[in-house]
Amino acid sequence: MTDPTQNGQSWKTLDKDLNRISQVEYATAYVSRPLVAPGIALAFIVVAGLAAAVFFGQTPVNMVVVAAAVFGAYMAINIGANDVANNMGPAVGANALTMGGAIVIAALCESAGALLAGGDVVSTISKGIIDPAGVSETRVFIWAMMAALISSALWVNLATWVGAPVSTTHSVVGGVMGAGIAAAGLAAVNWPTMGAIAASWVISPVLGGAIAAAFLAFIKARIIYVDDKIAAARKWVPVLVGIMAGVFATYLAMKGLKKIVKIDLGTALFIGAVTGAVTYVITAPLIRRQSEGMENRNKSLKALFGLPLVFSAALLSFAHGANDVANAVGPLAAIVHAAEFGDVQAKVAIPQWVMIIGAFGISFGLFLFGPKLIRMVGSQITKLNPMRAYCVALSAAITVIVASWLGLPVSSTHIAVGGVFGVGFFREWHAERRLRNGNGQRAEAKRLAPEERRRRKLVRRSHFMTIVAAWVITVPAAAAMSAVIFLVLNALVV
């Protein structure tokens, strides 16, 4: 007869063994979870390479185009992970959009912008950075563009990992410059153009920050700090929404309609003025109806700004897709053209399949890796609410239009993040001003220790320094990496 004590001991041993197995399963699931996103990204990159092989299956330089498509897909994924966060970060940080909603809207609008309004023609020398005569030999040109593509993708990937929003356009510019110098020497670089780009590092974020701060100052003076906030909102919110609609109509007319018709700045401004006026007429009764019964406090104002903020984020994403995707896939389009026709052209048409790789790659990158940078831009630099985030979105569009009018090559990343900094620093200045003018508790707060004062700053200085440092070294870092990659490719493949 079996001893019951032994039976009980056996069951306890079995339970322990089963528990160990379940713990192993949990551990395996926990370890494998971070590998899901890279796995999906790798699958997309492989599909992009296969697509290039299908389109260029009969050409003798098949493997060159396949390799370029693979790195082009890798670049597009990194753009989605880094660049697109600037458009959606403020809306998510202000709680006007959930993370999932922001990713869906951005993916759809970015893809639509790239495929519907993306440029037919892209400058393969990245807006005149290097002289085509210096790299007129097809093989040298292909390796130069391949090096630019690889280096810019690697740099944006590194910046995303560190948590710094950087300009993909400037990364491509740096890559092209570095490869051009390695291929044809310093004389091949158009230094006046590079000087203008370097100036834009300072001009675009400062201008974006100043415009965002100016709009926030206006909202505080005319709406937030008045006795009847709701009445003020009924008066001014339709005006601000009309300005937003007019600005985006102007921007999209200049950037998005170039496939259909050439529009000068005057015509684009007229289109924007008409759109703004029509939007004001439509919005005024809607805001009046929405504000009925609202309490006279700031929480009510946030609700009135929520929907306009969502629309502005969607329009920013569409405009980004129309304008910046072509810059990202420019080196890939240049390689495809050179491989197919055997010559080097200053401007080439972008094949539709290349734009599809760019559009879908951005969507995958945003979905898989975007939340990290969205959180950084939206909530970790400074605290945003719908009014502040609205000012950031509006300043981004206005700054791009002003820069286009002045002929300055600016980065949408620098402008949007500069707008976030502008809003944060204005809040610091405004809080200090109210502190100086106050008394009682405020007078007591003035006597805080310097360390406590620094701790209470409204803009995180560590993020500020990281981002500015990443901006400054983007072009030289991408250029150095590109030069090394070009020399390696040129030495290995003769």
Secondary structure: elements and pairs:
Layout: H1 4-32, H2 36-55, H3 62-82, H4 85-93, H5 99-117, E1 121-123, H6 138-162, H7 168-184, H8 191-224, H9 229-255, H10 265-291, H11 298-341, E2 347-349, H12 352-380, H13 386-406, H14 412-437, H15 441-445, H16 450-455, H17 461-492
Antiparallel strand pairs: 1-2
Helix pairs in contact: 2-3, 2-12, 3-6, 3-11, 3-12, 4-5, 4-11, 4-12, 4-13, 5-11, 5-12, 6-7, 6-11, 6-17, 7-11, 7-17, 8-9, 8-13, 8-14, 9-10, 9-11, 9-13, 11-12, 11-13, 13-14
Features:
494 residues, mainly alpha, two-stranded antiparallel sheet, 17 helices, 79% helix, globular, transmembrane helix
Number of helices: 17
Total E-strand runs: 2
- The shape, in one word, is globular
| Contiguous runs where pLDDT drops below 50 for at least 5 residues | 27-32
Secondary-structure element order, as H and E?
HHHHHEHHHHHHEHHHHHH
Helicity level, as a percent range? over 70%
Termini separation: 83 Å
Radius of gyration: 26 Å
What is the average per-residue confidence, as pLDDT, rounded to a whole number?
Answer: 78
Strand count, sense and closure of the main sheet?
A: 2 strands, antiparallel
Q: Provide the β-strand percentage band.
A: under 5%
How many individual domains?
A: 1
Structural class comes to mainly alpha
* Spatial order of the strands forming the largest sheet: 1-2
Question: Please, could you describe this protein's structure?
Answer:
Helix content is 79%, strand content 1%. By secondary structure, the protein is an all-alpha fold. It has one domain (36-492). Strands 1-2 form a two-stranded antiparallel ribbon. Helix 4 (85-93) packs parallel to helix 12 (352-380) and helix 6 runs antiparallel to helix 7 (168-184). It is globular, with a radius of gyration of 26 Å. The termini are far apart. The model is unreliable at 27-32 (pLDDT under 50).
